[in-house]
Amino acid sequence: MKNTRTLIQETTKGIIERNPIFVLCLGLCPVLAVSNLVENAVYMGAAFTFVMFFSNITVSMVRKIIPEKVRIPCYIVIIASFVTVAGLLMQWFIPGVYKKMSLFINLIVVNCIVLGRAEFFASKNNVVRSAADAVGMGIGFTGALFIIAVIREISGFGTFYGIKITPEAFKPITSMILAPGAFLTIGFLIALFNYIKLKKGNISE
C-alpha cells in the first residue's frame, strides 16, 4: 500500500506540484516554437514523453555501472539514442509532421528537463520509481503544452486541431501565433497556475 502511494506521488508531482513548464519553467524553447498549433503540441508532447520514459528507465538500470566522471556524457548518449528512435518512428508514420518539427524533436537531446531528471532522479532511484517520475513529467509537459497551443491556435487562427471553430466575424489575432503571443500566453498561465496553487494552499491552512 505504501509503495503504491509513493508511486502515485511520484507520478502526480510532475503534473501539478513540479510541472515542467508552469512551475519549473524549463524546456521553454520547444514550447515557444511548436505551441502555435495543437497538432504540433500533441506530437511534441508524445515524443518528449517517449524519450523521457525510456531514458529514465535506462539510466536507472545502468546507474550503478556508469563511472561517476562520465555519467553526464553517458546520460546524453542514452537520451540521444531514444531521440533518434522517436525521430525515426515519426519519419516512418507521420513524415509530414516530422518534416516541420525535426529540429525541435532533435533538441530534446539537450532538453534540461530530460537530462535533469536523469541526473537528479533516475540515477538515484529504481526502475519503477524512475518510470513513474517520467510518466508524470511527460503528462505535465504535454498537458501544459496542449493548453498553451489551444489558446494560441484558437486566438491566432480561429481553429482547433485545424478545424475552424470560430464565427466568420472573428478576426484572428496574428501576434498570438508569433513569439510575443507565446510569451504572453505562457506568462499568463504561469501566473494563473501559481494563483490557483496559492489559493488552494490558503484554503488548506
What attributes does this structure have?
two-stranded antiparallel ribbon; 205 residues; mainly alpha
Please provide a written account of the structure.
Strands 1-2 form a two-stranded antiparallel ribbon. The radius of gyration is 18 Å and the shape is globular. The protein contains eight helices and two strands. The longest helix is centred in the C-terminal third of the chain and has 31 residues. By secondary structure, it is mainly α. α3 crosses α4, α3 packs antiparallel against α7 and α4 crosses α6.
Q: Topology of this protein?
A:
Layout: H1 2-13, H2 28-34, H3 38-62, H4 71-93, H5 95-106, H6 112-120, H7 127-157, E1 159-160, E2 163-164, H8 179-204
Antiparallel strand pairs: 1-2
User: What's the order of the H and E elements?
Assistant: HHHHHHHEEH
> Helix count, per DSSP?
8
β content, as a range? under 5%
Distance between the termini: 27 Å
Mean pLDDT: 88
Total strand count, please? Answer: 2
Helical coverage, percent range: over 70%
The SS-based structural class is mainly alpha
Anisotropy-based shape: globular
Sheet with the most strands: spatial strand order: 1-2
Strand count, sense and barrel status of the largest sheet are:
2 strands, antiparallel
Could you list the spans in which at least 5 consecutive residues all have pLDDT below 50?
none
Integer-rounded radius of gyration = 18 Å
